[in-house]
From TrEMBL:
Pfam family, one: PHAF1
Gene symbol of the encoding locus: LOC111362855
GO biological process, one term: Golgi to plasma membrane protein transport
PANTHER family in UniProt: PHAGOSOME ASSEMBLY FACTOR 1 (PTHR13465:SF2), UPF0183 PROTEIN (PTHR13465)
Any one of the GO CC terms: trans-Golgi network
UniProt cross-references to InterPro entries, sorted A to Z: PHAF1, PHAF1/BROMI
Domain of life according to the entry: Eukaryota
Protein name: UPF0183 protein CG7083 isoform X1
Organism lineage: Eukaryota, Metazoa, Ecdysozoa, Arthropoda, Hexapoda
Length: 439
């Protein structure tokens, strides 16, 4: 049984780890993965068809805990303890819920005080005791209903509510949220829309990494030139204990930039990935006489939702991959969502010998492919992409579909959302020198 500390309006955790309001989905998953054997039977709940309108939920049924994430920002907004019998809970070191201690109204008042009025829902027979950033919900027996309806004295303290021995209501559910909007945080259905306010990313979750606010794709009429990345990280010279604030950073990375320049602009990548060699090369007649060719390599920036591909010979940028991190995709949870904005000028089309010109199309991480393809008039048949971790396993999420347009490859999921966008530089247009640009 987990023994956890509640911090209203902030977190639920212990000395080794804590779930903090505002933290990213991937950081919560990393905590759960680090507690294999302690936290078991974890479920991820999401909507395949409406991933932006239904909350993203991590459910831990064996511990009675539910983590509710904003579906757009993918950051934690509500922590819900829905089975009080499966977990021990403390506040400021004082235990108020355990197999030996029942979380009754009197126990909650003793531990937290009764400085806020309670609310009684006569339709659901549920009494809610609300503090800033914390709510307790008590199911009320119908025989005690008049006590809550006609004795308003409990609004200034629960001492006026007198219950017979063993008759005091016991907490059935506890929610931790940001701010004082407890009515908005009251969501009892897993995966349901929950309108609790969302805090900023806590400084304890920065972890000395750059995080993306917005990515502007720099383009000429029909070609990509590079990316302008608006990011934030910890402020210089300020520790978290001193209340250090984040600072904004803006950098530009272009096609042709060297690996050293990219590192100077964005810092060291979270991982470097080398593209696999051609497995059939060993069967070629010249394979034994020629040295193996060098492999192109990626810089993976997971918190930016970005991969950058470098040419193995020139060590210059030749491709960008922007990830949208939708649940149900093969790479879900590897990257944070790249909040990009891509403006594409459609190709001119010849209709009855007249050149037709169409307006620019703005594409973001939330655009649906049916809208984008209609505006760009993409008629090309897609390439079906089916990822698998090995030849013996299959992809449980199904195939995605890749469409090419100008110098862009759109990877589209079956629900019509864009999983990733690849921006590349055609072979003939690559410069022979590096474009060294940081700001």
């Amino acid at each position: 049984m987990l023994d956890l500390e509640i911090v209203p309006e902030r977190s639920l955790g212990c000395d080794a780890w804590e779930f903090v309001l505002g933290m990213h989905f991937s950081q919560s998953v990393a905590i759960i993965q680090s507690q294999v054997g302690t936290i078991r039977g974890v479920q991820v709940l999401y909507s395949d068809q409406n991933p932006l309108s239904v909350d993203l939920v991590i459910n831990m049924p064996q511990d009675g805990i539910r983590l509710i994430f904003d579906p757009v920002a993918q950051r934690l907004k509500v922590i819900e303890i829905y089975n009080m019998k499966l977990v021990k809970l403390r506040y400021s070191g004082m235990c108020f819920n355990s197999p030996e201690i029942s979380p009754s109204i009197e126990q909650v008042e003793h531990c937290f005080g009764a400085t806020h009025p309670g609310l009684y829902d006569s339709q659901r027979h549920l009494f809610a005791l609300n503090f800033r950033g914390l709510s307790f919900y008590f199911p009320v027996d119908s025989k005690f209903e008049d006590m809550f309806l006609f004795q308003p004295g409990y609004a200034h303290g629960l001492g006026s509510l007198q219950f017979p021995n063993g008759g005091s209501p016991v907490v059935s559910r506890t929610t931790i949220y940001y701010g004082s909007q407890h009515q908005q945080a009251n969501s009892s259905s897993p995966g349901g829309v929950c309108g609790a306010p969302l805090p900023e990313l806590p400084l304890s979750c920065y972890r000395h990494q750059l995080h993306l606010r917005r990515c502007d794709v720099l383009r000429s009429a029909t070609a990509t030139q590079g990316l302008r990345l608006h990011m934030f990280t910890e402020g210089p010279g300020r520790s978290l204990s001193e209340g250090g604030a984040g600072r904004s950073v803006c950098r530009v990375v272009r096609f042709g930039s060297s690996a050293q320049r990219v590192c100077a602009a964005l810092g060291a990548p979270a991982r470097t990935y080398y593209k696999a060699d051609d497995k059939m090369r060993i069967h070629r007649p010249t394979a034994r006489r020629r040295p193996p060719p060098a492999s192109d390599y990626f810089f993976n920036y997971f918190t930016l939702g970005l991969d950058i591909l470098f040419d193995a010979r020139t060590h210059q940028v030749k491709k960008f991959v922007l990830h949208t991190n939708y649940p149900g995709h093969y790479n879900f949870n590897m990257y944070h969502r790249c909040e990009f904005e891509l403006t594409v000028q459609p190709d001119k089309c010849d209709t009855n010998s007249l050149v037709e010109s169409r307006g620019a199309v703005c594409i973001t991480a939330y655009s649906k492919w049916e809208v984008v393809s209609r505006a760009l008039r993409v008629a090309e048949r897609p390439v079906v992409l089916n990822r698998a971790s090995s030849t013996n396993t299959t992809n449980p999420f199904g195939s995605t579909f890749c469409y090419g347009y100008q110098d862009i490859i759109f990877e589209v999921m079956s629900n019509n959302y864009i999983a990733s966008i690849t921006l590349y530089q055609p072979e003939g247009s690559r410069p022979r020198y590096a474009v060294n640009s940081i700001a």
